[in-house]
Amino acid sequence: MFRDGAFRIATEAGVPTRNTFFNLEAARQIGRKFHVINAAGVFFHLEELHSVTEGIRESLREDGVFVVQFLYMKRIVENIAFDQIYHEHLLYYNLRPLERLLDRHGLALFDAHLEPIHGGSMIAFIAHKGSDIVPTERLRAFKAAEDRDGSNELMTYLQFAERIERFKEENLGYLRAAKAAGKRVWGFGAPVKGNTMLNYFGVGPDLIECLVERNELRRDLYAPGSHIPVKIERELTGRPDIYYVLAWNFKKEILERNQALIRDGVEFFFPVNPSDTLA
Question: In CA terms, which of 3, 50, 202, 235 is 20 to 30 Å from 137?
Fold first, then answer.
């Protein structure tokens, strides 16, 4: 019924696994309670949000911890990382709205930690409401920062939209100037989020000749909407003058791995360039 690659690997390794969507009904079918429930990179994809959250509450032991990792909306706004807004991501969380969701289902935040991956991903720690776990100082600090910066206010998102429009014009100006100067521009990476950016900018093969990928499953494909062809990195002949980096969330790794190209004068341009400071 669903993609079974991970299911097959887990089953062959002896890990009891169900190949189904998790929700309250699935939780009741499992009929067990757990010390730890982990949702890494999935809690913002949910169509059955309340059923899933209720299923987590029902499956969590009284002394258990639910750990959830998600793209942090406050950082998306700060980084102008609007490319992370696309069809797979149905929900976008800050801590305050997440807290209101959990409260409806008898759960409560008690800690949070911000990791740099994807420009800032929040890892939140959750227990049953009314448990004796005391909220941490860093959780209080994150919520205070949201309040201070208006992270959950409508005006912040109206201003975000204006910043995105300026961001578009700046990037189109950069790409058009590169073309006018006779420079070859290739895209680095063909991530899903890159299509949000390329299509909103209206960029096609006239400005970016191809997208370079390490994932060989993408050989001979085209980016949807922009119709930019995808090329496999190890099969390349020649090189561009500029790599326009769509996979910007791996900036450190990309720069470390491509020092030879950089020394030879290839420019790596990061349209989204998140700050190293995760405040």
Answer: 50
Q: Where are the alpha helices (DSSP H) in the chain?
A: 5-12, 24-30, 49-59, 73-79, 95-104, 137-148, 154-180, 192-201, 251-257, 259-263
Collapsed DSSP state (helix, strand, coil) of residue 23:
coil
Considering the entire predicted model, what is its pTM?
A: 0.89
Q: Of 90, 24, 21, whose CA–CA distance to 59 is shortest? A: 24
Contact 242, 186 (CB under 8 A): yes
> What backbone torsions phi and psi does residue 204 show, to the nearest 5 degrees?
-135, -165
CB 86 within 8 A of CB 192: yes
Q: Is the distance from CB of 218 to CB of 194 less than 8 angstroms?
A: no
Name the nearest CA neighbour of 179 among 228, 241, 227, 237. Answer: 241
Residue type, 3: R
CA atoms of 125 and 67, how far apart (whole Å): 5
CA angle 86, 242, 180 (to 5 degrees): 100
The pLDDT score that the predictor gives to residue 102 is 96
pLDDT digits (tens, 9 = 90+) for 48-103: 999 999 999 999 999 999 999 999 999 999 999 999 998 888 899 999 999 999 99
The tens digit of pLDDT for each residue in 180-217 reads 999 999 999 999 999 999 999 999 999 999 999 998 88
